[in-house]
Amino acid sequence: MSILICPVCGRDLTRAERSFACDAGHSFDLSKEGYLNLLLPTQRRSRHPGDAPELCRARRAFLSAGHYAPLRSFVAARLSGEVVLDACCGEGYYTSAASERGFRTFGFDIAKDMVRLAARADKRTQYFAAGLHAIPVRTGSVDALMHLFAPPADAELSRVLRPGGTLIRVMPGERHLWELKQALYDTPYLNRETPQPCSLTPVRQERLRYDFELSGAEEILDLFRMTPYSYKTSRAGEEKLRALKRLRVTADFLVLTYCK
Ligand SMILES: C[S@@+](CC[C@H](N)C(=O)[O-])C[C@H]1O[C@@H](n2cnc3c(N)ncnc32)[C@H](O)[C@@H]1O
Ligand SMILES: [Zn+2]
């Protein structure tokens, strides 16, 4: 049985050949890549919600180079149960680590373009476009929930988890990308490590820290474009980074585990 519910009326969605439908007759076609669009027109704040295409491309190039592969394995190793949902899954980089391990995986994001990329590459996961504040997933149906570098939504995330289920959240640690900030700013600051509010019970807080090497301006710029620093210092920052041939950067992640 699917964990998905109808975004219009909340009844269970059942899979047919190329679509999902509820008893009330609301029906949602699977795209040719295999994802569902469960985002209602009224839930979209813009015609193309989510990150800009240039940012998506930069993130994809950066992730596929493997610099965050240690985090991908680290997170997947903390999952348990049967049903895993990746909330704000982006292009499914971490979701697919769970599907490769044999979990029954689901992933959603508000950006349809990201969900399309994810569904094209990972056929074992049911991807869908949806928003974090009205997740079309049955209450208490998820064993493990992934929520990585994503906006807060405490009540909805907790609703979809079953009692005893696990939430894995990842946020940047204080030294994350320190050398990139040193290259950009005269007096860089450490990141503040303030976790999002969470009503679930904290189980563990782990730090994953390592460094990795970027070679060539394009790789360095792809990373820069993924960060908030690029909104604040786009032109000047790009120029400083373009001059660099290589950069060793610290990856510093806080991996927070909660239990419902
Ligand atoms: C920094 S990215 C992280 C993506 C992925 N978890 C990863 O770590 O690769 C944040 C993601 O949140 C998505 N997002 C932002 N607001 C959202 C919302 N209200 N509902 C669902 N997804 C949202 C964006 O489209 C984007 O893909
Ligand atoms: Zn319905």
Give a verbal description of the structure.
- The structure is a single chain.
- This protein has 260 residues and is an alpha/beta fold.
- The chain has a single domain (45-259), classed as Vaccinia Virus protein VP39 (Rossmann fold, 3-Layer(aba) Sandwich).
- 28% of the residues lie in helices and 28% in strands.
- The protein contains nine helices and eleven strands.
- The strands form two sheets. An eight-stranded mixed β-sheet has the order 4-7-6-5-8-9-11-10, sandwiched between helices. Strands 1-2-3 form a three-stranded antiparallel β-sheet, with no helix packed on it.
- Helix 7 (217-226) runs antiparallel to helix 9 (234-242).
- The protein is globular.
- The two termini are 22 Å apart.
- The model has no long low-confidence stretch (mean pLDDT 93).
- The protein binds S-adenosylmethionine (SAM) and zinc ion (ZN).
- Zinc ion binds at residues 6, 8-9, 11, 22, 24, 26.
- Residues 6, 8-9, 11, 22, 24, 26 line the site of zinc ion.
